[in-house]
Amino acid sequence: MPITSGQLLLISLGAACFALAGVLALLRALLGRESLRTWGRVVLLAGALLSLAAIVWHAMGRGQWLPMSDNFEALAWLAVLLALFVIYVQRSRPMPMLDGFIVPVVTLLAIAAAMFGRLTPHSYKTVGKDTFLWVHTATAYGGAALFAVAAAGGAMYEYARRALRRKSKAPPPRLASLERLEHLMMNSVTVGFALLTIAAVTGFVRMAEESAGGRMHVKVALATLAWMVYALVMHAPINPRFRGRRAAMLSVFGFVLMIGTLIAVQFMPGGNG
Amino acid sequence: MQRVVLVGLNHTTAPLAIREKLVFPGEARAAALAAFKQAWPGAEAVLVSTCNRVELYVGRGIHDQPRAEQMIEFLATQRGVPAAEVQQHFYRSNDREAVTHLFSVASSLDSMVLGETQILGQVREAYECACACGSAGAMLNPLFQRAIAVGRQVMTHTALNEGRMSVASIAVDYARRIFDHFGDKTVLSIGAGKMAALVLQSFATLSPGKLLICNRDLTKAEALAQKFGGQPAAFDRLTEHLTAADVVISSTGATRPIITAAMYRSIERARRYRPMFLIDIALPRDIEQEVGEIENVYLYNIDDLQEVVATTQSQRQDAADEARRIVHEHVEEFAAWTRARQIGPLIDRLYRRYHHIAQQEVARAEGKLGDLSDAEKAHLHDLARRIVNKLLHDPIQRLRDSDALHAPTNQYLNVLEKLFRLEPEDGETPSAEPTHEQDPTRD
């Protein structure tokens, strides 16, 4: 079911709030004006609430409360989950610049939800009727959300690491410590990897059931590649050579593959499982 | 006539790689001053050597030696460095310029970190070393005593030292950018000197899980360990301590690197490639530069940290202006005092000599004129006295108005001495002892 104009307006307003929150985070980092912090949080929360309202309205419209029944809901949920994660972390134990790195991703997801939801209504027809497939979708998107956090952590790690090694005359912008960023990255990858594994197993089982074998779909290939990359990142505690910079770069690369998988899900024929 | 000559290099004119070649540790400085005395017995010298600067101040007769280039060559030879290699990094100045520079140095106005207090102690130390070696005399004693007084006044009367970020606090800030918590971390100090104590004081606030003090002299390590609740560590087990360490502060007096890239690579695996923050505040450097290129190693030397500190201090310009005003005032006072000290006896000798000649001529004239009344004799004496005074008035006034710390004045005085044969009389040579009474304008 395509989203209505009202739902589109809500998700668009949500995307605008996310974008504004991103700009405020950037300004706070550049100008060092801590007074922008509160405004940033308020705007981010407003974006999450607007997006949530669009999801609820959409679910009411189709009379189905189980989330992730189409690409609009999946992308909107992903945006909301990431925004809530940022709000939670910044409230419990603030991590400088976390919003500056994650909120742009949130904004893009909200914009994508608005565009794909309106232009290419793309429902996951069997979701809701088939718990097995719902688990596959939920774990895949949950994993993607965590990989987005890991990628943000990785990007922040690499940025902070370079700033420290560059030894500029002025102190570099304050981010969380490398140790904390590494923890964020590894924890996100660990949980995300578990979710992606579940998604992969359920996906393969469904593929086998539907006898879709013979040729591998692009999303399967990309997801498998992403799984292998994250398996390498997970390797870091065993082989410490993978820790630090390598893990950070792999996390970013893995997320790029995950985005490719999501795009394949949205655009490629048969991508909606 | 005496003149002050300065040659030196500092963080603005020479990179760390050059400065570390020319640094004079304690014994080397005393040896250099002894060699200087031997080479130029008539000259005075004070050698200031810190991690940011090497400066040689010389007091000598205006036409005497050593010249600036000889001084540079002397410094280079003392450290076994070809003079040609370092010559372009040196600055040279004389008299007023040299005095202003020294006062600025003692006031930390010339430091990389404005308002740092350590430099004052280092200037005092350099002066005391020169006194002990007998190389500071009538010219440099009052100069350095005044410089120390100026530095003290700037530190206590201006806000230059307030709100300052130190090298130690910047090091702690950077450690926080690498590590999240320190309860499970090991901080290792290699060296147990003053600098190590200063940095450890800041790191102690992070409450590290383990604090190791590694020093060749274990008694020093024990003393410092006791002060900060750490443990002394044997120097011969340095590799083992490095394997355990997360933060390393190195400040030894070693002349060669004690942590090399090869050494670090050998322990990298045992450390499980954990990040390490290395702070090298020694000069010459203790840690090979290549170590900083290894993955997960963050190496900062004294220049890296000081540059960061320097960029954070622009807001203290008002205090710096006030400090400069104090320095300027003291340079003027010192110039006035030097003028009085150098010109006074000369003018006195000049007057005495010409009045004496005039009196001789008056006496001869009295003999030729025959009977003169007392009033006429008094007139004659008065006439001669007034003629001498009038003749000498203008040149002497010009001398009095001149700046004793400018080279031309010294040359005038020298010429005056030579032309009018005004050699110092017995007891006029100023004392070479470092007494406070020598400097009447001293605070």
What features would you describe in this structure?
The complex is a heterodimer of chains A (273) and B (443). Chain A is an all-alpha fold. Chain A contains eight helices and no strands. Chain B has 16 helices and ten strands. In chain B, the strands form two sheets. Chain B has a six-stranded parallel β-sheet, with helices on both faces. In chain B, α9 (194-204) links the parallel β5 and β6 (210-215). The longest helix of chain B is centred in the C-terminal third of the chain and has 53 residues, at 317-369. The interface between A and B is medium-sized, with 21 and 24 residues.
Characterize the overall form of chain B: elongated
Number of helices of chain B: 16
What are the secondary-structure elements of chain A, in order, as H or E?
Answer: HHHHHHHH
Number of strands of chain A: 0
Structural class of chain A: mainly alpha
Q: How far is it from the N-terminal to the C-terminal residue of chain B, by CA?
A: 26 Å
Question: Which terms would index this structure?
Answer:
heterodimer, A: 273 residues, mainly alpha, flat, B: 443 residues, alpha/beta, 6-stranded parallel sheet, 4-stranded antiparallel sheet, 53% helix, 13% strand, elongated, disordered C terminus
Element layout with pairings:
The complex is a heterodimer of chains A (273) and B (443).
Chain A: H1 5-31, H2 36-62, H3 71-92, H4 98-119, H5 131-166, H6 178-209, H7 218-234, H8 245-267
Chain B: E1 2-10, H1 16-22, H2 26-39, E2 44-49, E3 53-61, H3 68-78, H4 83-86, E4 91-94, H5 95-106, H6 118-133, H7 140-157, H8 167-178, E5 186-190, H9 194-204, E6 210-215, H10 218-228, E7 231-234, H11 238-244, E8 247-250, H12 261-268, E9 276-280, E10 297-301, H13 302-311, H14 317-369, H15 374-401, H16 407-419
Helix pairs in contact in B: 2-6, 5-7, 5-14, 6-7, 7-14, 8-9, 11-12, 14-15
Describe this structure in a few short sentences:
Chain A is mainly α. Chain A contains eight helices and no strands.
